[in-house]
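Suppose you are handed a protein chain with no further information: no name, no annotation, nothing but its sequence. What can you learn? This example shows the usual starting point.
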Amino acid sequence: MNQSCEIKQLAHWLRLFFWSGLVFANGQPSIAEIAKTKAKVLEQEAVADNTNSASSTARIITKPEVRSVDPDGTKPLNDPITCLSRTIYWEARGQKTTEMEAIASVVMNRLSHAGFPDTICAVVTQGNEQGSCQFSWWCDGYSDKADEASYTIAKEIARKALNRQLTDRTHGATFFHHRGIEPDWSSEFIKTFEIGEHIFYKSGAAE
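A reasonable first move is to predict its three-dimensional structure. Written in C-alpha cells, the prediction is:
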C-alpha cells in the first residue's frame, strides 16, 4: 500500500470514529469502542453483500478487540458483538464449537435476508421479551447475563462470524430448533443441516 492510500485509509477511520462519537478527549478510542465500530461496519457490509466474501484486513476484528467487549457478560445488548455472542452462548452453551458456529451462521444469514431486520441486535431480539420471540433465550424470562467460560468461546465465534471467516455448515439456514421439539413450521421449510441438539432449515417448500 503506498503512502497516499495509507493516508486516505487513516482519514476514513478518523472520520468514522468522529461521527460515531468515539474519539475521547485524548484522541484515543478504547479497544472496545474500536471493536464495536468495526462490528457495525461489518454488520452493514453483511446486510448489503450476501457473498460471504472475506472482509478487508483493515476492518477485521482482532482477538484482543473482541475480548475487550462485554468481558464479564453483563453489558447491555446494544452492539453487534454482544448481541451475537449472547445468542451463541444461550442457544448452544455447553455444545461443540461447530454447533455454536451453526447458530452464529443462522443469525448472519438472517441479517442478509430481506425478510429479517438489518442489525444483529434487532435480529436476535425480534419479537417480545416476554411471550413470543425468534430466539428462545430472549423471551424465556431468565437473566440474559453470561457468566461461564463458554462465553469466551462464543465471543470468538462471533468475531469470526462478523469477519466472515466462518464456514456456513447450515447451507444458508435461517431457522433452527432443538431436537426435543417439532414446531409446526418445520414441515414448511427445507431441512439443510443437523448437528448435536439442533436441526436447521431455510425457507422454501419442503419435499
